[in-house]
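Figure 6 in text form: structure in, sequence out.
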């Protein structure tokens, strides 16, 4: 069963304004993102590139809207740079989030990722990590996990299309190589589905390791086009590969909610369903998502 005191719902600003595709929602301000999240009934937000880097400015913007920060993406580059460089960047990121009261740091290895290249076919050119690269990632993540614990925080690994850790086999390998106490998981329905995996089966396997959740659905007709036309990850996003729960046609939401509920999941569920805001009004879709979650959880 869900504990309404310990289950929280948030949104990612990428639904409004996309960090990797600046032309999507480029005109929208972080104030609009936060205001519309609150208006839709959410209490938390992740951090986007438009959010203030000044702590007091961001806190003020959050407080007047009754919002909190629950996470912010961190990019690891263990495969391409010295470990010390990622560690130093992580410490600054960790300390900023800690000052905002966040308990989780979602991260992924992106050193050889193609996710940010608009002209690179996703399925044909996805990186295949070497044994040495997996080892570097695993040992680096464990060190970040230790550093997070210094602040009573945890990291949560975000498997992601185009990074080399997107399939269940790749995720299994990383999970097997790392200490569960140091490297928990960020469960993302959309990326699991996009990769061709059963998100319910993945969740069932790793639910005890999940510390943060991203909800999004996938549009099957767009997925077929991405494969057939050799589109990139970002082209897929532009075409509408992702949408909010309650709108797509590929995720078994009853199965997802059942497993989370039976395992008394506590923490944040974040709507991260990036679309072109000119085609899919972010407020409208945020309201749709919040309504859907309420129907499923009663919260």
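Output sequence:
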């Amino acid at each position: 069963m869900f504990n309404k005191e310990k289950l929280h719902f948030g949104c990612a600003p990428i639904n409004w304004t996309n960090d990797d595709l600046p032309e999507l929602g480029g005109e929208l301000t972080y104030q609009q993102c936060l205001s519309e999240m609150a208006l839709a009934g959410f209490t938390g937000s992740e951090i986007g590139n438009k959010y203030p880097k000044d702590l007091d400015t961001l806190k003020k913007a959050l407080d007047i809207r009754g919002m909190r920060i629950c996470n912010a993406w961190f990019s690891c580059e263990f495969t391409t740079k010295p470990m010390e460089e990622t560690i130093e960047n992580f410490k600054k990121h960790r300390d900023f989030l800690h000052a905002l009261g966040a308990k989780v740091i979602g991260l992924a290895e992106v050193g050889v990722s193609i996710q940010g290249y608009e002209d690179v076919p996703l399925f044909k050119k996805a990186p295949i990590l070497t044994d040495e690269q997996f080892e570097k990632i695993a040992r680096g993540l464990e060190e970040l996990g230790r550093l997070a614990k210094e602040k009573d925080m945890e990291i949560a690994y975000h498997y992601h299309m185009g990074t080399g850790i997107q399939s269940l086999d790749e995720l299994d390998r990383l999970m097997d190589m790392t200490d569960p106490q140091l490297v928990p998981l960020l469960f993302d329905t959309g990326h699991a589905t996009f990769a061709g995996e059963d998100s319910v089966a993945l969740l069932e396997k790793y639910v005890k390791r999940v510390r943060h959740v991203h909800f999004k659905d996938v549009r099957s007709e767009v997925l077929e086009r991405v494969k057939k036309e050799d589109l990139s990850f970002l082209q897929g996003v532009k075409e509408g590969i992702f949408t909010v729960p309650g709108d797509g046609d590929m995720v078994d939401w009853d199965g997802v909610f059942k497993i989370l509920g039976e395992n008394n999941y506590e923490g944040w569920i974040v709507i991260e369903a990036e679309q072109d805001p000119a085609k899919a009004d972010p407020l409208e879709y945020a309201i749709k998502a919040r309504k859907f979650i309420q129907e499923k959880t009663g919260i």
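Caption detail: The longest strand covers residues 104-109.
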